[in-house]
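Example 322, ligand phosphoric acid mono(formamide)ester.
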Amino acid sequence: MRHLLDTKDLSREEAIRILDIAESMTDSTGKEIKKFPTLRGLTVANLFFEDSTRTRISFEAAAKRLSADVITFSAKGSSVSKGESLKDTAQTLEAIGADAIVIRHSSSGAAYRLAETDWIDAAIVNAGDGTHAHPTQALLDAFTLRRERAALKGEPSLGQGLDGARVVIVGDILHSRVARSNVWLLNTLGAEVTLVAPPTLMPHSVGDWPVRVTHDFDEALASEPDAVMMLRVQAERMHGAFFPSASEYSRRWGLTPARHASMKQGAIVMHPGPMNRGLEISSTAADAPNSRVLNQVSAGVAVRMAVLYLVLAGDSTDTQKA
Ligand code: CP
């Protein structure tokens, strides 16, 4: 695999391979992440033009677990404030020794721009670009779902997709790169996806996506999904035009204690983080025994190890873009 830019580019076999490699990065308890010498002598640069807690730190942890050196760049406090371009910034990181660049940027398409120009030779991993894609988040979500299903069935997860799983994704779909990457990956892996959002936060393009769409959260919950994935309301992308109001949003599209109580036995709560507690998700749901929010964070390290391994040390059959 040369780069990882979006889950839309992944075949089912490629996606399962990433998930299987991520499984092999954990020990037999499935929790502890092993340490490998695989990427010794290589350098991973985290190039973050937008804020991040989980993605940046877990990429850093993943690179270190593979024995790579890590350079972390944050646009805040850098020469970006003096007008330095994306091209010059990326070339500077490569000149310092970056073999892979993990990029988060507010512009949709920034990761593709780095991968498709001849500015640099480094492998590119998209850590979130605008409202477009967040492939490693979707992969860690699939990893979490796959583990859950395997545990319920008492079967190993290796080699498995998510055939027949029913996932409801709720919230600010309009601004969500997490939703977009999940829609493509979950579909590729055989899951059925329902999107729920206020009409103002559902993108017009949703008619072209392989999903069922509703504005009624209670109707979606009545279909007894295996997982309810809540999305963050991205107020920072709404430029002060938050609509509906927070109280209406919470009442109609929030995972309230009552809606949480109505979930079927064995169904799980997911959220990519950071959470707006009391808005899209109640603390009752976020902290419940069936919440997998922190499992998702843990899965992020193993999945990002698998991705860094594939783009920096994958075998010669991994020639495709992603
Ligand atoms: N889920 C996610 O991308 O979180 P961060 O913004 O903290 O990286």
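Summary: Residues 52-55, 128, 137, 272-274 surround phosphoric acid mono(formamide)ester (CB under 6 Å).
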